Amino acid sequence: MKNILEVDSIEKSYDFKIILSDVYLKCETGDIIGILGRNGTGKSTLLKIIYGILPAEHKFVRINYQIRRKAYKYKNEISYLPQDNFIPKNFKVSKVISLFLNKNSITTFYEDVFIQQIYNQKVNQLSGGELRYLEIKLILFSESKFVLLDEPYNGISPIMMNSINDLILKYSKYKGIILTDHNYNNVLKVANQLYLINDCSTKKLKNKQELIHLGYLKEGML
Fold this sequence. Notes:
Blueprint: E1 4-14, E2 17-28, E3 32-36, H1 43-51, E4 58-63, E5 66-67, E6 78-81, H2 93-100, H3 103-109, H4 113-118, H5 128-141, E7 146-150, H6 158-171, E8 176-180, H7 184-190, E9 193-198, E10 201-204, H8 210-213
Parallel strand pairs: 3-8, 3-9, 6-7, 7-8
Antiparallel strand pairs: 1-2, 1-4, 4-5, 9-10
Helix pairs in contact: 5-6
């Protein structure tokens, strides 16, 4: 059975300046929705509003036809990767895994060769890319039906980007994923639906060429 996340009528302003207005999107199991837009257009703000950790003047968020005003309270329904690292730096990786995951799923989690290489280290010993990979895998491995990824490629190497793309594609078979990142190339590699935030609202794109027609990218950037 497919799960459905619906977001509608989002309105948000700061200091009387409208940031988001009449925003709509829909995500189902198997969807990887890429949200693009210039800096300051409200991409991260939108994810925080969906998750319920940022208030909005108006919003409508529904998961499987149930209204969720504070979606973060429903851990089995939705999870969120913030831009900043969220794992305590003084913990060992193995402890983080044991605290974060259901005991029945830990053995499967350790089947990842990369995780086997770092599980005995402390978090503060990991590189930025290793830490981001761990965070993203923990979020994707959770029991939630939907995942929000805010800047998942921030500050990581091209090799690690490929590994993260593989993770996103693998777990999209079981979840609906919404991500945003300034690295539009990686978003385009994994997303099967694209939305552009333009003039405070979301526009669902028919194809990536519309990014050029709408002025987000220049000719030759695709």
